[in-house]
Amino acid sequence: MANDREVLRIVWEGQIPVRFQVDPDEIDGVQQPENFYLMISRLSYLPLVTDKVRKHFARFVSNEHQDGEVWYDCNGTPLKWHYPIGVLYDLTTSREDNALPWCLTIHFTKFPEGVLIRCPNKEIVEAHFMSCLKEADVLKHQGKVVSAMQKKDHNQLWQGLVCDKFDQFWAVNRRLMEPVGDQDGFKHIPIRSYNEDGTYLQKLIQPTTDSGQKRTVQDLLEDFGTPVRKAAENGNTTTAQG
Amino acid sequence: MENPGDDRKETSIERDSSIDTVPDKQSTKIDILLNATGNVPIMKKRKWAVEGNKPISSIMSFIHRYLRMDAEDKLFLYVNQTFAPAPDQIIKNLYDCYGSNGKLVLYYCKSQAWG
């Protein structure tokens, strides 16, 4: 998997054109802001683009809220910042109306307490991302690879994602995507199966069947029970698989 | 969970209103083991049965209340001393992937431990 460089690069380069607007109720004054457009990596997280979006809209909302915590919705559905953007896009667009750009609304007030997890700073996002990598490594290698890494390796993974540096990221990530020791492949496959309502299922999935055959994506979808319209892999493999 | 400090029902964190009904797959109880780590009080009772479809945040707020921690006190929760699950992760998902000997082992602390 770590050797399939062309595929890895295509997955890495997956982007979504996004149109941001600000909640009209939050506009302070008569001047209406123009919409704001960005191309965003499917592998990234919303708080990592917030600086740019905030900068565009901040002067149109009241002073007291300009620097506060923001959140996003798509057609009224609050978006979980801790899901990768590609997962959020897939969950909020149906096959029939996947017209681009993806239209999101940024909010500076009325945080939906109890629906979304708060995200006061980017360190929280980094901690969450690293936890996902660790969890995935527990499944793949019983956590041996990630725990043998140094702090600088962790930084390199995170900075690779934040700065959109494929080579920097994969120089470290390849270690997470290879078998270790006498392991033939991964011990288990880290995968999450998302439901339409944004919840997900996780199961312990072996890479091979009882008779030793390699399992296919179809096998996995059956494991999770249909209808599984959208499956997205978790943590580390999100960044490998999109 | 709505009744903090209610210890009458020894084996359950929550007062289970559906106890007399046949539990469906979603509400099956899961045994969890809560271990203190670092500079944080231990809980007299470590083993609890919780509903599998509840998010991990419900366990966090339960511990918070049980230990009478201050509202601003942070609490970190780890699975098997390895990673911190997202607060909205469902307990059953964790049990299915990381449970052993019929229970899910969680560690709690006030500062990042394996983060």
Automatic annotation (TrEMBL), chain A:
Membrane topology of the entry: Peripheral membrane protein
Query: Does the UniProt entry include the keyword Ubl conjugation?
Result: yes
Q: Where is it found, in Gene Ontology cellular component terms?
A: Atg12-Atg5-Atg16 complex; autophagosome; mitochondria-associated endoplasmic reticulum membrane contact site; phagophore; phagophore assembly site membrane
| Domain Autophagy protein ATG5 UblA span(s) in chain numbering | 11-108
Subunit composition and interactions? Conjugated with ATG12.
GO-annotated molecular function = Atg8-family ligase activity
InterPro entries in alphabetical order: Atg5, ATG5_HBR, Atg5_HR, ATG5_UblA, Atg5_UblA_dom_sf, ATG5_UblB
Span of domain Autophagy protein ATG5 alpha-helical bundle region: 123-178
Gene3D superfamilies in UniProt: 3.10.20.620, Autophagy protein Apg5, helix rich domain (1.10.246.190), Phosphatidylinositol 3-kinase Catalytic Subunit, Chain A, domain 1 (3.10.20.90)
Listed name of the protein: Autophagy protein 5
Record-annotated Autophagy protein ATG5 UblB domain positions: 188-223
**Example of a GO biological process term:** piecemeal microautophagy of the nucleus
Say which family it is in: Belongs to the ATG5 family.
The entry's function note states:
Involved in autophagic vesicle formation.
Listed Pfam families:
ATG5_HBR, ATG5_UblA, ATG5_UblB
The subcellular localization recorded is: Preautophagosomal structure membrane
UniProt keywords (A-Z) are:
Autophagy, Isopeptide bond, Membrane, Ubl conjugation
Q: Which domain of life does this protein belong to? A: Eukaryota
UniProtKB/TrEMBL annotation, chain B:
CDD domains from the UniProt entry: Ubl_ATG12
Q: Name one Pfam family in it.
A: APG12
Source species, please? Answer: Pseudolycoriella hygida
Q: Which is a GO BP term held by this UniProt record? A: autophagosome maturation
Which cellular compartments is it found in? Cytoplasm; Endomembrane system
| Summary of the function given for this chain in its UniProt record | Ubiquitin-like protein involved in autophagic vesicle formation.
Q: How does it sit in the membrane?
A: Peripheral membrane protein
Q: Which InterPro entries does the annotation name?
A: Atg12 (IPR007242), Ubiquitin-like_domsf (IPR029071)
Q: Which superkingdom is the protein from?
A: Eukaryota
Tell me what this protein is called.
Answer: Ubiquitin-like protein ATG12
The family note in this entry says: Belongs to the ATG12 family.
The record, for PANTHER family, names:
AUTOPHAGY PROTEIN 12, UBIQUITIN-LIKE PROTEIN ATG12
Q: Which GO terms describe its cellular component?
A: Atg12-Atg5-Atg16 complex; autophagosome membrane; endomembrane system; phagophore assembly site membrane
The Gene Ontology terms for molecular function here are: Atg8-family ligase activity
Q: Give the SUPFAM superfamilies listed for this entry.
A: Ubiquitin-like
Q: Where is this region: Disordered?
A: 1-23
**Any idea which UniProt keywords this protein has?**
Acetylation, Autophagy, Cytoplasm, Isopeptide bond, Membrane, Ubl conjugation pathway
Q: How does it assemble?
A: Forms a conjugate with ATG5.
